[in-house]
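Long-time lurker, first post.

We've been arguing in lab meeting about whether nicotinamide-adenine-dinucleotide would sit comfortably in this protein at all. Half the group thinks yes, half thinks no, and nobody has a model to point at. So I'm putting the question to the forum: if I give you the sequence and the SMILES, can you give me back a predicted structure of the complex? Inputs are below. Any interpretation is welcome too.
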Amino acid sequence: MTKVKNIVTLGFGDMGKGIAQICLMGGYNVIAVDVSDEIIKKGLEYNKTGFEKLEAKGKLPAGVSAADLMARLSVNKDLVDAVKDADLVIEAVVEKLDLKQKLCNNVIENSPDHCIFASNTSSMSITEIAEGCKKPQNVIGIHFFNPAPLMRLVEVIKGYKSSDEAMDIGVEVSKSLPCLRGERFVARVLKDRPGFIVNRVLSPSSMYSNYIVDLAYEKGIPWEQIDADLSGPNAPMTSLTLSDFTGRDIALHVSEYYAEKLSPDFKPGKVLLMQNKEGKLGKKTGQGFYDWSKGRPQPDLSKKAGLVNRLVFAAISANEGCRILEEGVVDSWKVIDEAILAGMNFPGPMKYATEHFKELSDLLEEYSEKLEKLYLKPCELLKSGKFVDMV
Ligand SMILES: NC(=O)c1ccc[n+]([C@@H]2O[C@H](COP(=O)([O-])OP(=O)(O)OC[C@H]3O[C@@H](n4cnc5c(N)ncnc54)[C@H](O)[C@@H]3O)[C@@H](O)[C@H]2O)c1
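Top reply:
Settle the argument with this. Predicted structure of the protein with nicotinamide-adenine-dinucleotide, as tokens:
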């Protein structure tokens, strides 16, 4: 198996600069490529100040200084020149399929034979990104969570043509990248399906939250009361604040994506469509569910609407977990729970489901009727409880 020494990060934006940081801390030489001088300047500054702060706190690897790490980082705007000695290229450019395909092709053409091209895409098919390039066996997904230095999870994704060797290298390198908050967890994604593991398992819960939000709107119930229903006790942000923070345009995009790839039942709810039409996109426009004009809102959660059955979320997620087990995306329910804990900082749904699959299946029968969403019906693996043996 090739020993990886030289990594190129393609795209030095939000994700690329964090990926470069952990690759340097993992002991690799890094060349960062971007088309924008301003982004390159910001990325270098981010890494330099980040390393200096870590050095001051004594958090750099033993015997390594901030200056040592920066000495192993270089930047290059010329992709062809940057990849000529690359063992691994991790792509984190904007989410556009034709751009990713073009860069993949270019990297494979101009890098050494053994070089692996890994995409950090959140939503695209690795198989499609590799389409048309000469060595699709060298193309995999390495999906980091934001920010990469702090979020423990990395999903390593096998495209239909990715070789086992490329996957093994992707997993080995990912495991070697330090995480500043706990131990890194690397999940092997065995099949290239929309959303991979974590995003996929959590995606259909939006059907229920859209239903609740639409119902509250019809009944004239204040968002704060719905937020009190939806928000978990120890979450760093309330549910609707988080939704505003991420952006209601992103929520619309995600709904449309899964509606196209998985089922029309994912189509957006009325409130989501209305917010997008009116430009109430959340933090970025100053208004979403809440007013952001004076900074992050502090909703009063003292009164609940009492519309939400939180167990429904657990049931929907466990059902989706069973679906990806059925599809062969993963082969163990424990991996799903570990991935969700590492990627989202809250427990996954599967352990609970191993003891309560009958109750959760009944609940899903009831709510699939109520919401008129066939997609929410329990799948065979959940109903039968046979997933319990897939450890
Ligand atoms: N932001 C997140 O939360 C997150 C999480 C996981 C995965 N991702 C994925 O990571 C990727 C990057 O996301 P981001 O949030 O860092 O975006 P970003 O917009 O912050 O950065 C993208 C960078 O790509 C650069 N770029 C554009 N064309 C280029 C080219 N031809 N060559 C080199 N660089 C080029 C841009 O100048 C920009 O700096 C996307 O595929 C996204 O889906 C993002």
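For your lab meeting: The two ends are 28 Å apart (CA to CA). The pocket of nicotinamide-adenine-dinucleotide is lined by residues 10-16, 33-36, 39, 92-95, 99, 120-122, 144, 146 (CB under 6 Å). Whichever side wins, do check it experimentally.
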